[in-house]
């Protein structure tokens, strides 16, 4: 029997939450369970656990499972027994003990699963948890549908802990019991809340709930596969947010905020960038993958899952995930198992389609197979694209190489690796439906397109689906002016163009003048996520200008650039309102998409106008504040 005093410094954590009140909780890490009881402390060794606790009579305890009895053990102690767990890995076991819990119950919900929010907050303000509980209900219902498998337990506990402990900086997704800090889930005043706070709550909940299926019930075989489940849940977090709360445009916002960061980090240095898949020879090595590389490993692999889904088919992706979950329920799975389930689903659908979609199904199988190649290769490619017209045919000349923003590295002289690259296009007369899907493995390649007349535009990487950059010739870039102005390109395609040309400036592939001319096409843009990328580019250029050595040149160029930026922003600045749309009556599904977009757009435009020193903005701000 383990004693809490002996183990307090190892894996049993303790904190005070109000005067004379304490909470202790067990959070097993990669090698902590073996310190508390004899076990095979590896993810692949799953077992069922009967848990007995002997605790003081004035103490309450919760664990992964419900307790089925509590009885007196001695004059001062009680014994608690919890129901037997399903087969789980040791790191998923958890226990919380406290002298007092406040329990907010959401039992009557569509999922018919009691959802308890357990807090140590003594403020008695239960309204602050309503948004989290309501969102949990929607998300739990969504994941049961998407994964095709019911939630595995008869209860779900969300526990908020008052703690600044270093080991509780974010949520911890144990089976049936999820830890949060109080600040993670508390929304105290819906009339004053920013939608970013709501998104943060839902993001944490979605990730943690998805983990109940992918991570807890289906588990990584060893710590080398941890990235697979962590990033898959990160992907499903955004997928759920996009489907359950469409007004937030979560994928679009996440792409604007995180895709650029992932691509930047992965192209920052040939020496620093690592591949996603790395061997773990000791559980402590997991920590080495967290900073600084781990954050980008999960970020990048999240976008690789998006690349896989977009190039396959949304329904195939869902069916393959369902097969993976059903086949490996209460077991462990690997990347190879994951890929095998996708191939099986494609074969099953191919058998129903006959020869009609044979070529497309072959492309889909290739896409699944090359997924592992992308996880084993560090960095990503850039496609240099030029074109020539041959009658009513357009011939695209494509050249791939590894993309590095700092191109003075001596390693650039080495031969660039070759990626298997998924290619598809959108064009003038079919701007929203990708075509010509294929995978190229060569360094140089020609793509011949029929029925493309002079003056028509062609764009690669539709909806920013794939994890690579595209460098267009100036002639191709200039053709995007009209489709940008008239919004003939999708929002993600417009965002992709801005992000790519910004990277091409930093890498020295494209002139700044060419890009600034293209940006003028965005004067009427009303998408806040696209403006976020544009403003980031303007800030980058502003920083470059501020480092010019000559004072005279720097001041002159800086003044001209700030005037250009203010002219670019002016039309949207004149259209937005300064007042903020209240979220007082917010409920999931009920707030209009335009209201969220307007709030985001207002924030971005006003901040940028202030940064570039617009006089009208400064005058208006002085009057208001």
From TrEMBL:
Keywords from the named record: Aminopeptidase, Hydrolase, Metal-binding, Metalloprotease, Protease, Zinc
**Coiled coil where?**
none
**Record GO terms (molecular function):** metalloaminopeptidase activity; peptide binding; zinc ion binding
GO terms for biological process? peptide catabolic process; proteolysis
Q: What range(s) does the ERAP1-like C-terminal domain occupy?
A: 457-623
This entry carries the following GO cellular component terms, namely: cytoplasm; extracellular space; plasma membrane
Indicate the secretion signal residues.
Answer: none
What InterPro entries has UniProt attached to this entry? Answer: Aminopeptidase_N-like_N, Aminopeptidase_N-like_N_sf, ERAP1-like_C_dom, Peptidase_M1, Peptidase_M1_aminopeptidases, Peptidase_M1_dom, Peptidase_M4/M1_CTD_sf
| Ranges for domain Aminopeptidase N-like N-terminal | 21-91
Q: Where is the Peptidase M1 membrane alanine aminopeptidase domain?
A: 131-342
What this protein needs as a cofactor is: Zn(2+)
Q: Report the membrane topology from the UniProt record.
A: Lipid-anchor; GPI-anchor
Q: Where in the cell is it found?
A: Cell membrane
Family per similarity comment: Belongs to the peptidase M1 family.
Matching entries from PANTHER family are given as: PROTEASE M1 ZINC METALLOPROTEASE, PUROMYCIN-SENSITIVE AMINOPEPTIDASE-RELATED
Designated name of the protein: Puromycin-sensitive aminopeptidase-like protein
Q: Which species?
A: Euroglyphus maynei (Mayne's house dust mite)
Q: What is the lineage of its organism?
A: Eukaryota, Metazoa, Ecdysozoa, Arthropoda, Chelicerata
């Amino acid at each position: 029997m383990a004693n809490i005093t002996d183990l307090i410094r190892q894996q049993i954590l303790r904190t005070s939450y109000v005067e004379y009140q304490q909470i202790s909780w067990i959070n097993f890490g990669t090698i902590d369970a073996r310190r508390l009881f004899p076990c095979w402390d590896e993810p692949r060794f799953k077992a069922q656990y009967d848990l007995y606790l002997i605790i003081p009579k004035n103490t309450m305890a919760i664990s992964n499972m419900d307790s089925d009895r509590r009885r007196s053990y001695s004059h001062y102690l009680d014994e608690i027994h919890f129901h037997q767990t399903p087969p789980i890995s040791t790191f998923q076991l958890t226990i919380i003990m406290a002298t007092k819990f406040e329990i907010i119950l959401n039992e009557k919900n569509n999922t018919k699963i009691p959802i308890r929010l357990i807090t140590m907050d003594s403020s008695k303000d239960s309204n602050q948890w309503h948004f989290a509980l309501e969102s949990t209900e929607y998300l739990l219902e969504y994941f049961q549908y998407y994964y095709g498998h019911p939630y595995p337990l008869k209860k779900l506990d969300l526990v908020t802990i008052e703690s600044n402990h270093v080991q509780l900086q974010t949520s911890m997704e144990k089976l049936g019991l999820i830890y949060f800090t109080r600040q993670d889930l508390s929304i105290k005043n819906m009339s004053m809340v920013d939608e970013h706070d709501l998104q943060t709550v839902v993001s944490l909940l979605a990730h943690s709930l998805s983990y109940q299926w992918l991570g807890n019930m289906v588990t990584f075989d060893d710590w080398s596969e941890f990235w697979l489940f962590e990033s898959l849940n990160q992907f499903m977090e955004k997928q759920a947010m996009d489907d359950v709360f469409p007004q937030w445009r979560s994928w679009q916002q996440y792409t604007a905020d995180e895709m650029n960061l992932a691509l930047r980090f992965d192209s920052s240095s040939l020496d620093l960038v690592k591949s996603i898949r790395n061997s773990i020879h000791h559980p402590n090595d997991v920590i080495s993958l967290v900073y600084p590389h781990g954050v980008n490993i999960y970020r990048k692999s999240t976008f690789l899952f998006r690349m896989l889904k977009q190039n396959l088919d949304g329904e195939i992706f869902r069916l393959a995930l369902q097969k993976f979950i059903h086949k490996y329920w209460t077991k462990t799975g690997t990347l190879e198992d994951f890929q095998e389930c996708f191939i099986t689903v494609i074969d099953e659908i191919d058998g129903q389609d006959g020869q009609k979609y044979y070529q497309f199904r072959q492309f889909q199988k290739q896409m699944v197979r090359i997924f592992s190649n992308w996880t084993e290769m560090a960095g990503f490619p850039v496609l240099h694209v030029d074109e020539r017209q041959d009658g009513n045919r357009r011939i695209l000349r494509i050249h791939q190489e590894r993309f590095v923003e700092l191109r003075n590295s001596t390693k650039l002289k080495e031969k660039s690796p070759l990626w298997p690259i998924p290619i598809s296009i959108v064009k003038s007369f079919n701007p929203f439906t990708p075509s010509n899907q294929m995978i190229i493995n060569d360094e140089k390649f020609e793509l011949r397109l029929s029925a493309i007349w002079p003056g028509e535009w062609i764009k690669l990487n539709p909806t920013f689906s794939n994890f690579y950059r595209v460098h267009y010739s100036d002639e191709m870039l200039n053709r995007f002016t009209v489709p940008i102005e008239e919004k003939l390109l999708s929002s993600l395609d417009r965002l992709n163009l801005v992000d790519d040309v910004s990277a091409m400036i930093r890498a020295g592939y494209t002139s700044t003048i060419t890009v600034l001319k293209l940006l003028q096409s965005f004067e009427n843009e009303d998408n806040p996520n696209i403006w976020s990328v544009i403003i980031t580019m303007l800030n980058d250029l502003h920083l470059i200008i501020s480092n010019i050595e000559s004072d005279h040149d720097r001041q002159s160029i800086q003044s001209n650039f700030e005037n250009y930026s203010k002219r670019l922003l002016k039309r949207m600045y004149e259209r937005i309102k300064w007042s903020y749309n209240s979220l007082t009556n917010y409920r999931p599904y009920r707030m209009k998409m335009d209201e969220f977009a307007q709030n985001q757009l207002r924030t971005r435009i006003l901040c940028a106008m202030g940064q570039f020193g617009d006089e009208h903005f400064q005058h208006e701000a002085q009057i208001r504040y």
